[in-house]
Amino acid sequence: MKQSASAAPPxxxxxxxxxxxxxxxxxxxxxxxxxxxxxxxxxxxxELIYWPLVQMLMWGFLQTYLAQTSSFAAKAxxxxxxxxxxxxxxxxxxxxxxxxxxxxxxxxNLGHLMMxxxxxxxLVAALILVSLIKLLVxxxxxxxxxxxxxxxxxxxxxxxxxxxxANLVLMSWSLGLVSTGVVLxxxxxxxxxxWLIVFVFLPLCCVxxxxxxxxxxxxxxxxxxxxTYVFEGLRxxxxxxxxxxxxxxxxxxxxxLYFAAGSAMFxxxxxxxxxNGTLVQMGE
Amino acid sequence: xxxxxxxxxxxxxxxxxxxxRKIYRDITAVDRISFSLEGGSITALLGGNGAGKTTTIAMLxxxxxxxxxxxxxxxANMARERHxxxxxxxxxxxxVDVPMRLTVRQNLEIFARLYGVRDLKSRIAETAEExxxxxxxxxxxxxxSAGQKTRxxxxxxxxxxxxxxxxxxxxASLDPDTADWVRSKLxxxxxxxxxxxxxASHNMAEVERLADRVIMLEKGRIIxxxxxxxxxxxxxxxxxxxxxxxxxxxxxxDGEDARSTT
Lengths: 284, 262
Fold this sequence. Notes:
The structure holds 2 protein chains of 2 kinds. By secondary structure, chain A is mainly α. Chain A has one domain. Helix content of chain A is 79%, strand content 0%. Chain A is built from 14 helices and no strands. The longest helix of chain A has 32 residues. Chain A starts with 10 loop residues before the first helix and ends with a helix. By secondary structure, chain B is an alpha/beta fold. Chain B has a single domain, classed as Rossmann fold. In chain B, helix 5 links the parallel strand 7 and strand 8. In chain B, helix 7 packs across helix 8.
């Protein structure tokens, strides 16, 4: 018979589990889990590309039509396609984050994860990485097709694109944290919240029109949202060729606040789920 | 039945529950229970539906925070410092699945990584061999039979060589042959590893065979805490099944009495 397992806690194993490399291994393990799911089903991969592609084609053709009938639209080539690509970065990244989490509930695996040494911050890190992977799978083909069909090269935005991208994905993760937190706390009854939350921002972030279009009171709301600055910045670069760094700095500052608030809400909802017992009921 | 192993001086017990209480709104699921488990022991939590077994196990796992009292595992308070000990535990329940679309190998690989299992490939190969999963390694978990799924769940539960194993109805909905196989595996593992096992079950034959201690819960309270033979003797019954029925029917009779007086 082997030695009793009730011996004193082995501190070396505890230390091993607490190292950065052990944390990285757990994050990698969970990312691998989502990667296997993406890889195992081509319809899922196609679904990732489907909506961004449909949107891009629709707005691309609309812009082509408007360019034939309006001198403004003719000068603003790429305005709508750029906007729809940026909007889809926000949407796909948020959904990538939230749906990866929902997979755990659909497959009744959340209990296993929560019982494993995986820490909440590692779960979030894995969801962030998965959202980036899904974003790349969805948006790279669509960006290539935007260039092929309409001559819009998103990379021609250069450094501005990097700033837009960073601000949009940061915002998407904040929304992902809040939406998954809500599902953790209230279970699958709140699933639609995770799917729909991002669309509240479509009119408010002024994706296709300037902030000045909104009533004054709503402009205040719009200017409190980081993506608004990205879309204003996009219009500045497409219409005037100006990269307005100030807009990106404001977006980043707001994003830091939103991400901190999103993290705090996720932690609060997780603790609330542990108090209310919803972690145990979920998926059962 | 196995003899619990002694602890080295100063080492906390694998499980120590003190005045543990959980209230959901106006329902008291667990009501000030206390017990401590020795290393290498096999303990069954028994009770009817709603007795508080699952809530107790959930508090031992740190998935549910107690309203008051504490659940300590290897000395760690599971409400606050569960990550200190989670790598030393594992659990299995028919109410929790591993991802359906992933193959058996992929599932085992992912959980091995999450638990920080050393020599991952050889450990998975060894586990696959032990649980007769070699032929199934490339099949999606969702396409397996109930018995095969149980073997995968058991393999997952033992992948990190846990010192404490929490099992919630491990043989529910299994055919007698598979259920017997699972019990044998658990016995062999716990004896070989000296692991502590906490088992919630409705199967009294299973409890009689495996457990060296029975903690019986009713309405969140401990109403009996002794060995199966002691419990059977105290109630003057032939087996645990009869003891369980006697307690359950006594509860119903008490309820009827209470109703008739109001």
